[in-house]
Amino acid sequence: MIHASAPAKIILSGDHSVVYGAPALVAAISPRVKVTLQELPEPIVRLHADGQHAEMSIPDCLELQAELDELHDDFMEGEISVHDVLESGSELFFYALSQWLQPDARKGVELWMDSPIPIGCGLGSSAATIAAVCCAAGKFFGEPLEDLQSLVAQVRFIERLQHGRGSALDASAVVFGGVVHLADTLTEQAPLDNNWWVVHTGKPASSTGECVAAVREKYEDSPIWQRFSEVTNRFQAAMTAGDEPALAQAIKDNQRLLEELGLVPERVQSFVRRIEIAGGAAKICGAGCIVGEGAGAVLVRGVDPTTLAEEAGYGCQPIIGDRHGVRLEPA
Ligand code: PMV
Fold first, then answer.
1. Which residues contact 113 (CB under 8 A, 6 or more apart)?
2. pLDDT-wise least confident of 79-88, 91-100, 306-315
3. How does 173-207 read in b/e, with b if 16+ C-beta sit within 10 Å?
4. Strand partners, 52
5. CA nearest 47: which of 103, 105, 104, 115?
6. Burial class (CB in 10 A: 0-12, 13-18, 19+), 239
7. Predicted TM-score (pTM) of this structure
8. Ramachandran category for residue 296: left, alpha or beta (phi over 0 → left; psi -120 to 50 → alpha)
9. How far apart are CA 114 and CA 289, in angstroms?
């Protein structure tokens, strides 16, 4: 049996703008997803996740891989929406494993996933799970990837089915761990301190892929990305210098820009204002939403948001950074 795990992630700055080449800061955080792979005596792929089970023969799995590649091409050519590429979450994992499958294989593989990361809330659950699956599969099939950058590329390649034209941000965080600054190159930063919280404002009714596509339609050539870059640069400088007022200002400015893009519902905006009145700063993390009331995770600094979150009916917890990226685990 092969075991692997990978952390959740939270985007500190650069959500969306990273897709247009702006710098970004992202942190790996607790909890970790765990996956286990075991050999099966027949050529089938079997998945177990969240109490759900699914299985497919290896030839069917390879056929699904080819179909999903074609659907993604259709999406890239503007013929279908990103929403129409995958029919279910399990297809993503059949697709991930298909990267290693051979049509004439005599044996199969069984995959268990145990993910405490909430799905679709801006905490990188799909990147973490895909990274853990790829890490375990590389070992299981005797073809581990040579370096972490190749693993980032592979996670991103698989995630494209879900996120469309996404960035390497989620993949970099869950593969490298710690705090990562992504610009032309990737640089590791000092670990997170204990003054960050995450507030859960509810699962967004729109997916990351849909939000990215909606933003692209309106803002692809907008000068707004320059303003995002400037905010992320200030964010990073303030974190490095331990300059709290400058960090709070960068968080607030980042939130205003995300509001300008239309990604923050009114209810979440007024929660953020209450955090600011209480002396803190907050911003949405991840894709946000284009419909509904929930915007997924909100990052908070400078004030313990427990009471305000309770009043708003939101869950909340302190953020615990994770210095470790994806890795194999002992049996
Ligand atoms: O919502 P999440 O956790 O999938 O993060 C999406 C981050 C975006 O910047 C909006 C898209 C991307 O691929 O970087």
1. 33, 34, 35, 47, 48, 49, 50, 93, 129, 132, 133
2. 79-88
3. bbbbbbbbbbbeeeeebeebeeebbbbbbbebebb
4. 49
5. 115
6. buried
7. 0.91
8. left
9. 26
224 Cα: distance to centroid of ligand 1 (angstroms): 17
Check if 224 has its Cβ closer than 6 Å to any atom of ligand 1. no
Whether the CB of 209 sits within 6 Å of ligand 1: no
Candidate of 159, 160, 169 to mutate for ligand 1, largest count of ligand atoms within 8 Å of Cβ: 169
What's the gap in Å between 168 CA and the centre of ligand 1?
9
Cα distances from 301 to residues 73, 107, 127, 196, in angstroms, run 41, 51, 25, 5
State if residue 16 touches ligand 1 by the CB under 6 angstroms criterion. yes
Q: If we measure between CA atoms, which residue out of 118, 284, 300, 128 comes closest to residue 211?
A: 284
Over residues 112-121, mean pLDDT: 88
Q: Which two tokens stand for residue 278?
A: 């209480």
Distances (CA, A) of 238 to 72, 193, 267, 279, 307: 40, 13, 29, 17, 27
pLDDT digits (tens, 9 = 90+) for 45-56: 999 998 889 999
Residues 164, 213: contact at Cβ < 8 Å? yes
**Distance between CA atoms of 284 and 270, rounded to whole angstroms?**
12
Confidence of residue 119 (pLDDT cuts 50, 70, 90): confident
Question: 51: which 2 tokens?
Answer: 């109490």
Q: Supply the pLDDT for residue 167.
A: 83
3-state secondary structure of 277: helix
